[in-house]
Amino acid sequence: MDTKEHILSVAQKLVQQRGYNGFSYADIAEQVGIRKASLHHHYATKSELGIALLVSYSAQLDDELQRINALPAKADVKLAAYAAIFRGSLKAERMCMVGMLASEWLTLDPAMLPSLKRFFERNVEWLTEVLAEGKSQNLFSLPGSAADHARILLSALQGALLIARATGDHAAFDGTASLLIKSITGKG
Amino acid sequence: MDTKEHILSVAQKLVQQRGYNGFSYADIAEQVGIRKASLHHHYATKSELGIALLVSYSAQLDDELQRINALPAKADVKLAAYAAIFRGSLKAERMCMVGMLASEWLTLDPAMLPSLKRFFERNVEWLTEVLAEGKSQNLFSLPGSAADHARILLSALQGALLIARATGDHAAFDGTASLLIKSITGKG
DNA sequence: GTCTATAACGAGATAGAC
DNA sequence: GTCTATCTCGTTATAGAC
Questions:
Q1: How far is the C-alpha of B176 from the C-alpha of B172, rounded, in Å?
Q2: What is the dihedral of CA A89, A92, A95, A96, to 10 degrees?
Q3: Which of A103, A78, A99 is nearest to A90 (CA)?
Q4: How many secondary structure helices (H) and strands (E) does chain B include?
């Protein structure tokens, strides 16, 4: 991994754990093993780094969604795989990076906001497709639009991750996630 | 309102809007109309202020839940009144203060954490009671435990507020909240 | 209880040598 | 591309007068 990627990886972890306003260039420098000033050669300003983080994180999301799309699985399994992404974050004691940034959005460089919004839209779009797919396969019984259910899923997983990480109650997250999926796949 | 309460009120708004690491004593001083140094007479340190904020915010929650309990209404109406609290925050462009603090919990004074956890527990307990009440009134048809449904409700409302505030999509919040309640009160 | 003044530190960022 | 050295500003917090 070259230095630029190493910086990005460390910075992403710091945002997910401490928030954008909760870490400094000194923290990155320490973990990457170079001096603060050298960071500015790769990312001149902190908000430039923030924008790069959003681009990188969105690409990671696309990779994950494509990986799930490629599974030889039905829609219900895809939903479980999607929820497992959040479960993995919880295990690593990290928030979704964009969920974290969303909480701080009023303090962010406005240039970061478009990709932040786009990230959530991408999640809702993908979930809406999977829900529609499950509907056409007669796997799901959904009162209300697929898009509204998609937003419930995204919101509930973000909120459950937020709360479970702070309370340390991982079992509560599991209960929430499995009941969420159960309530979509139907009771029978 | 005396100065101490005024400080608390301004600080609470700042945490809800910008996060605990996103505002300073200078911001409070400017809005309260006194000097930075005077703030330390009322709250010696920032984490002392943070703890006072959690005590005050928890008391506000108790007031709201008691107000809803006192309504001459059935469980479904109480759930809608609970969701309306979050809707009010969104309208004021504020996060739930404790949801905000939860995202930053790794950077907080550990003394703040017990009341933070207690806040979420209080929400889940109350929601669990209302859901059980609705069940006994034959208003709700719930697969899974009332506590798990309570956690879905809390998580989804926290997440929907987080996302809708950042994206500016208030209609998405409304769709999420109403479908959440609809899916509990049943389709008939 | 509020003020001025200031301490002590950490932040993001820059200059210029190597 | 990384370093040392430094700048400027904002942060929490304190001392002591009024």
A1: 6
A2: -40
A3: A99
A4: 9, 0
- What is this structure's pTM? 0.98
CB A90 within 8 A of CB A17: no
**Residues of chain B contacting residue A19, judged by C-beta atoms under 8 Å apart:** 19, 21, 103-104, 107
Indicate the pLDDT class of residue B188, thresholds 50, 70 and 90: very low
- What's the Cα-to-Cα distance from A28 to each of A86, A92, B2, rounded to whole Å? 24, 18, 43
Q: HSE-up of A62 (CA within 13 Å, CB side)?
A: 8
Residue ranges in A19-145 assigned as alpha helix (H): 25-32, 36-42, 46-69, 75-91, 97-103, 113-136
Tell whether the model's pLDDT for residue A188 goes beyond 70: no
Q: Residues B57-185: name the CATH superfamily.
A: Tetracycline Repressor, domain 2 (1.10.357.10)
Confidence check: pLDDT of A46 > 50: yes
| C-alpha to C-alpha distance for A162 and A167, rounded to whole angstroms | 9
Q: Smallest Cα–Cα separation from A84: which of A187, A182, A173, A162?
A: A173
A:79-98 residues touching chain B, CB 8 A cutoff: 95
Distance CA B58, CA B155 (A): 18
Q: How many whole angstroms separate alpha carbon B163 and alpha carbon B45?
A: 32
Nearest to A21 among B21, B102, B145 (CB): B21
Chain B within 8 Å of A17 (Cβ-Cβ)?
A: yes
Domain boundaries, chain A: 57-185
Contact B116 A148 (CB under 8 A): no
Residue A177: the pLDDT is 98
d(CA A178, CA A41): 46
Stretch B138-163: mean pLDDT:
96
